[in-house]
Amino acid sequence: MSQTLTPPKITSLLAPQAAPANPPSLTVEFFQETIALTKRLFIQLQRRPTTLVAGIIQPFMWLVLFGALFLNAPQGLFGNDLNYAQFLAPGIIVFTAFSGALNAGLPVMFDREFGFLNRLLVAPLASRYSIVAASTVYIISLSLIQAAVIVGASALLGAGLPNSFGLGMIALIVFLIVLGVTALSLGLAFALPGHIELIAVIFVTNLPLLFASTALAPLDFMAHWLQVVASLNPLTYAIEPIRYIYLNGNWGLDSTVLTAPWFSLNFAQVLGVLVLFDGLVLLLIQPLLKRRFL
């Protein structure tokens, strides 16, 4: 009894598959890629949460130590019925977000040095800008988490707690300053030759920008030349509106929040300066990204 063996239909398996009837748009693919790359960064954070923990402990120590340092300062030194914890909290919130954003380029730099970035660049991505977008979303998320913790800690230390609308405005200000600084850090990650140079830039700019702002002292405490420098510092434009929210229950977009040596700005104008700063940085890093991605 003979049996006929029929070969499997190999040709049908090797034939090219038809494209889906409705392929996802480039926008959908971009968001999918951004979400996947952001998830990768959060997985790294979950495995090594030291960065987040240190980013919360350090500003909390600043709040405690500087609050104790000026605990017996003369009454009214920083304003009527104002303790130093209330004055310091906005500066620590912004500086914590700024420090995290300034370090945003380090993961990308390490990906460059270990070769993972090259693998992403040769992958069939809908847009290589999803690499930058994922890092930005990741850093903004961490900054908002850290800011929320510092707001709660400062409330326990006597700084008070703004209302829900004030908290939302603080989140918006933190978002604006983090967006610009993160973009700048990512641009440096693609421009500098290695992580040693990037860390050097971070060390050189971190504390000087803190002391050249109104985070630790008001403008009228400073020498005139430092007042000019602080008036050009983007951190000052993030600190002052948050400080105004802490010190004034009734505030609006027309409230004057910053009085510099040669001008005064209200709430809306300060927000406009932060948006302008973000737009300028995003414009400046475009040649670096295009040279790397295209």
Summarize the structure.
This protein is mainly α and 294 residues long.
Give the CA-CA distance, first to last residue. Answer: 66 Å
Helix content: over 70%
Number of helices, where a helix is a run of at least 4 consecutive DSSP H or I residues: 12
Mean pLDDT metric: 83
Query: Tell me, what's the shape?
Result: elongated
Cα gyration radius (Å): 25 Å
**What would you call the structural class?**
mainly alpha
Structural summary, described in words:
The protein has 294 residues and is mainly α. The chain has one domain. The chain is 70% helix and 2% strand. The protein has twelve helices and two strands, in the order H-H-H-H-H-H-H-H-H-H-H-E-E-H. The chain has a two-stranded antiparallel ribbon with strand order 1-2. Helix 5 packs parallel to helix 8 (164-191).
Sequence-ordered SSE layout with sheet pairings:
Blueprint: H1 10-14, H2 26-47, H3 50-69, H4 84-102, H5 105-114, H6 116-122, H7 129-156, H8 164-191, H9 195-211, H10 224-232, H11 234-247, E1 256-259, E2 264-266, H12 267-293
Antiparallel strand pairs: 1-2
Helix pairs in contact: 2-7, 3-4, 3-7, 4-7, 4-8, 4-11, 5-8, 7-8, 8-11, 8-12, 11-12
Membrane topology: Multi-pass membrane protein
Transmembrane segments: 50-71, 91-110, 131-159, 165-191, 198-219, 262-285
Main location: membrane
